Amino acid sequence: MATTPPPPSAPPKPTWDPAQVESPFPWLRPTIRIRLTLLYGGMFLIAGILLLSIIYLLAAQALHVGSSPPFRIVSGTKITVTSSTCPGVAGDQSIEQFNSAIAACMDTQRKHALDDLLSRSLMALLGLSIIAFAFGYAMAGRVLSPLGKITRTARRVVGSDLTRRIELDGPDDELKELADTFDEMLDRLERAFTAQQRFVGNASHELRTPLAINRTLLEVHLSDPAAPVELQQLGRTLLATNERSEQLVEGLLLLARSDNQIVERKPVDLAEVASRAIDQARSEAEAKGVEIRGERAPAVVQGNGVLLERIALNLVQNAVRYNVPEGGWVEVTTEAQHGQAVLMVSNTGPVVPAYEIDNLFEPFRRLRTERTGSDKGVGLGLSIARSVARAHGGRIAAVPREGGGLVMRVTLPL
């Protein structure tokens, strides 16, 4: 007795968020400037404590609490003394009582003097330490300012702006040597990048032209009703092979271009992009019996609409093609969250091991085998999607879906 297969479950919501969480206290980051400031201030504080200790010991030795007073009253009559700081010597006393009171009073005054010296010195050391830390922070920033310029230039270069140069001025020290070396490296990279662009342009012309000619000739021969059946079958096979070669060339050229940073950006709604991709893949999905569903909320990003549409189309086509034979579905959603636009494509399909995920984004690769022998594509879809996402400052990640299939998540900055 045949059993009814269970209905497909909804795709699980990923528990991870690829957005990088910034530290709430960026000034606490242990930068070189902070470490140098702590080093300078710490050395000053240690030197101040040592100097204060030496001064205190020398002062204590000079005053020497407990030593005898420099005078003693040996004899005399009717000695009357008043003192506001030594009330013990006031009144009628014998000579011995008076000498003892004088000695105790001098010990007390020595202790007060040492305590006052210590407290005032500590306050002065604290104030000077604050000044030293602030001065050290300012000097460290001044010394490290060339490194900041190098870092800012490197960040601009990451965006494929290879025309940037540091051109650091100043003394011929280690930092200027580093900046000059970095500039020389950028010169070589710019030359190599320009050569690559020239090669891509030449390859685009040289490869497309013969393939277009071959396609035209094959279509002309196939349009001849008098052609033998064997020749028509051969022509259709060659036409399919030629079409595959054209797709491969287009994919390689797009992959080469999409590795660059997008210079001209325009507002693009990911919801609209996803809807267009779904419209293009709907006929194929209906032929395979795959349902396409999902809610698409507006999520406007700055980028290239054609390339972003290619991301959505590649993901949707892969989700349709690599699906279950019956009762499969593809869910496409878009939303804006945490300052990012998110495009998520989930699908039913074969079980994908987690360790195989990285291979999916390599050119001409698929699960456990190379893609060059498959009729489902040229094996560049996910590679192109990753390159386009990176060119827009975003990223694409995949996680296996419980029960089979994948959850593809594209995040782009708003």
CATH architecture group name of the largest domain: 2-Layer Sandwich
CATH topology of the largest domain: Heat Shock Protein 90
> What's the helix count?
8
**Silhouette:** elongated
CATH superfamily of the largest domain: Histidine kinase-like ATPase, C-terminal domain
Largest sheet: 5 strands, mixed
Specify the CATH class of the largest domain.
Alpha Beta
The total strand number stands at 9
> Beta-strand percentage?
5-15%
Computed CA radius of gyration, to the nearest angstrom: 41 Å
- Report the average pLDDT across residues: 77
How do the SSEs run, as a string of H and E?
Answer: HHHHEHEEHEEHEEHEE
Total domain count: 3
Report the span from N to C terminus: 54 Å
Helix content: 40-55%
Q: Give the low-pLDDT segments.
A: 1-22, 369-375
Structural class of the secondary structure composition?
A: alpha+beta
| Spatial strand sequence of the major β-sheet | 2-4-5-9-8
